[in-house]
Design brief:
CATH architecture of the largest domain: Up-down Bundle
Largest sheet: none
CATH class of the largest domain: Mainly Alpha
Shape: globular
Structural class: mainly alpha
Oligomer: single chain
Helix content: 55-70%
CATH superfamily of the largest domain: Heme oxygenase-like
Radius of gyration: 19 Å
Number of helices: 14
Distance between the termini: 28 Å
Number of strands: 0
CATH topology of the largest domain: Heme Oxygenase, Chain A
Number of domains: 2
Order of helices and strands: HHHHHHHHHHHHHH
């Protein structure tokens, strides 16, 4: 289990102090800023995943902690819905998802990584992504018992590939850990949480928010569909960028996604998202919301990273120590 991170404000300080004690009622405190909110929410969600060293399992369902999480979720969701704006769910769902993806106006991060990024910048990018990739597919798996019929079958088919198709060494989270090690990074789950900014944690919190609430099952379907539909080209660019830097040993995770997600793209758009909207048409708007919210948060993250790099600064809260890079596959 990872260690609890350092607090980033009054709320996370109160929460983390409480979590190292036996479960008890926690008084509510307002977050100091978005860093404080996103880290607190991320830690609260982690109680439902792998939790933290020294934190009792009983905290997962402690009523006051759930009430605190609900307050933070309400603020987070309200801000997302305001940012996303009015939803138009008229039309074929695959086309609506394509429109949501096309509306993203962030800087060309994947193109920069392919053509210009240094090895140290690539390492930073991988640390950002580790907040999700080391538990890849888990947030979307919450939706499996909440779906039925064809959408459930499509989701399970996608998730089976994400978890390695029966081969533990082929789990995508395991392949990402291999990439981290090839880049001289610590692949331990949660090792970089103190360095990962709130703008990154928000992208993962969105998945947990939608995955853990049955009422948002349409949104988690839309999120996964958009993620799969927009995966092949960026991952090809990431692999190309690593090869440009002579880091072939770090490419397998990205090459796997180029192949797998080319298959998943149509499956997610049609057999999952479109079939779900046909079965539950009243939730078609939430499918679009999940996709558009993903695009908004990914755009904010790409903007943050590129702005910091343009100023010659680290995109993380603390710069990484230099690591030993593996220049070829072992």
């Amino acid at each position: 289990m990872p260690k609890l991170p350092k607090p980033r404000g009054p709320l996370s300080e109160l929460l983390f102090d409480a979590l190292v004690e036996p479960p008890h009622a926690v008084r509510v405190r307002e977050p100091g800023d978005d860093e404080d909110l996103q880290l607190s929410l991320y830690v609260l969600y982690e109680l439902h995943y792998r939790s933290f060293d020294g934190v009792a399992d009983g905290w997962e369902w402690e009523p006051s902690v759930l009430a605190l999480r609900a307050r933070l979720e309400a603020d987070f969701e309200a801000a997302l819905r305001a940012e996303v704006g009015p939803l138009e769910a008229d039309g074929a769902v695959p086309e609506l998802l394509e429109q949501a993806l096309a509306a993203g106006d962030g800087p060309p991060l994947s193109r920069y990584l392919e053509c210009q990024a240094s090895a140290e910048q690539f390492r930073e990018f991988v640390v950002h992504r580790s907040a999700y990739q080391l538990k890849e597919a888990d947030p979307h798996s919450w939706a499996i018992p909440r779906l039925a019929g064809a959408p459930k079958v499509a989701l399970v088919e996608i998730q089976s590939d994400e978890y390695g198709g029966g081969r533990p060494e082929r789990q995508h989270a395991r392949l990402f850990a291999d990439t981290m090690q090839a880049l001289g990074l610590d692949a331990t789950y949660g090792a970089y949480l103190d360095r990962i900014p709130g703008v990154t944690l928000a992208t993962v919190n969105l998945m947990s928010l939608c995955g853990l609430h049955r009422r948002l099952r349409g949104a988690i379907v839309g999120h996964l569909a958009a993620l799969e539909m927009d995966s092949t080209l960026p991952n090809r660019r990431y692999g190309n960028g690593l090869r440009r830097l002579g880091l072939e040993a770090a490419t397998e995770f990205y090459d796997e996604h180029v192949e797998a997600d080319a298959v998943h793209e149509a499956l997610a758009a049609n057999d999952l998202a479109a079939a779900f909207a046909a079965a539950e048409p009243e939730l078609a708007g939430d499918v679009v919301f999940g996709a558009r919210a993903m695009v908004k948060l990914d755009t904010a993250l790409a903007t943050h990273i590129m702005d910091r790099w343009a100023r010659g600064e680290s995109s993380l809260r603390e710069p990484l120590p230099r690591g030993e890079l593996r220049l070829r596959a072992s």
